[in-house]
Amino acid sequence: MEIECMNFSKDDFIDKFNQQEENVLKHYQNLSFNDESVEAVLSRPVHPHTGELADIIRNDMEKFGLSEAQEENLKRLADGGRVITGGQQAGLFMSPAYIIHKIMSIIIVKKDMKEKYDYDAVPVFWVAGEDHDYEEINHTYVYDSMHRKRRKITYKPNLRINMSIGFYEYDKKVMKETLFKIMELCGDREDLLALRDRIESMIDRHTYWTELFHALVHDVFKDEGVLIFNSHLPEVRELEKGLFRRMIESHGEIHEAFMRGQEKINAACGTSPVIQTDTNVHLFIGADMARTLLSFTDGHFTAGDERYTKEELLELLESSPHVFSNNVVTRPLMQEMLFNTLVFLGGNAEVKYWGELHEVFDVMGVGMPIILKRMEFGYLPPRLDKMLRKYELTFNPDFHTQAEDYKASMVQDDLNAGFIDKIHEITESAEKHYRELHGLNSQEFMTDIVEANFKHHIKQLDYLERRYRTEVKRHRRKELGDVRELQERLLPDGALHERIYHPWQYMTDFRDFPPLSYTTDLVLIKTP
């Protein structure tokens, strides 16, 4: 297995962030991955509830079978150990591939932290079970090699879910059917056949959507000691009651700080807002039924048609904390109030919106962690590598445009310019002769007939040219199909394929790599 790293960024802000420019880092409490920042974060006081948090995670994970490495990390967490974390929604069978890559990033940074700073950080993956965006997680994409096209595989496409996905009980029969469709398109590799049997058993053993997702992640990363945190657990909500209370009581200051901080970072860096929200409270209620944003107007909190005084809302929190959840503004804040985080890894958008929230952390007196962009991975199977060499194409950030130009030149080279010129010459001649015919016509009833006849001939000439160009493309369909496949599988819609395709498209073992260190470059893996 070969690995190549390359600069693949097209985002000016992220480039400046990765280069640790002062004008950007000031929105992240001036923290970066260096000696001074690591020491500063490690010197912070430990949250008093850390032992209780470790017990909740242990109780949730025990049913999946704790590995020795996970047991050790749970002890470290209970003793106040700092965590390296990242999170994601519970995508269908861990899709798309960048979900896996986030966890790999956590593991790699944990290794680097031990090697560079002799500190055993705790790897934690946060499953956003409180999210209700079902349509974002109910599907995956697999490349259909036989028909050379992308296929969308969806679990119950007509289903509508308004509750937090962590409360959703999946249909086991339909989930298995969805699994079989994905596996069928991924191919008949031996590793996939063995994996299918294990996952069928997981589907039968579990009940909830996030529970199945947890089981899948656990199966892949348990030996790496990754702790999996399900944010929607009732025990977590009970632990968070005091933190939610602080957010409710400070909702005005939080909103003003968010608006102020967002405006500052965008003005300083010349960027546009990432966080778009209509609320001024930044909390949801109704997570177990219909998840609805809270707002504050005229002295009352409102959620849809429901109205609450502050006292009523706090009473609801006290009796039913499980119905509360965070939105994009308060979720990072909740993470830092729960965990003693050393490093948070996120995608480009996440990195940006943490910067937009810097004044929220300041006003709440909460320290930010060191923020890093998660690592990005690409896969280059032997067949695609061979095709790149055959057509003398290079995989780089401009590959999509490069491939488009190659296809255009391939067709252009095969076109008989003289043939097309002759069609254009005949067209121009016809236009000239029909103008003369109109000039000779003195009978009004013939005008429409002559014009119709002219349009018919022009239409036929236009058809002849279009049909000729189509036949040239058809003659080159094998080569054009190869280049289109390269585009679709390596950079679909101009984006890295990790953002689109299911990870099983490439492999099932995501630990058997040569030693890697954290990098902001794209890691291109040449798969066997």
Automatic annotation (TrEMBL):
Family: Belongs to the BshC family.
Matching InterPro entries: Bacillithiol_biosynth_BshC, CC_BshC, Rossmann-like_BshC
Domain Bacillithiol biosynthesis BshC N-terminal Rossmann-like: residue ranges: 1-375
Enzyme class: ligase
Function: Involved in bacillithiol (BSH) biosynthesis. May catalyze the last step of the pathway, the addition of cysteine to glucosamine malate (GlcN-Mal) to generate BSH.
Keyword Transmembrane: no
Keyword Ligase: yes
Lineage per the UniProt record: Bacteria, Bacillati, Bacillota, Bacilli, Bacillales
UniProt-listed Enzyme Commission number(s): 6.-.-.-
Organism: Salinicoccus kekensis
Protein name per UniProt: Putative cysteine ligase BshC
Gene: bshC
Superkingdom classification of source: Bacteria
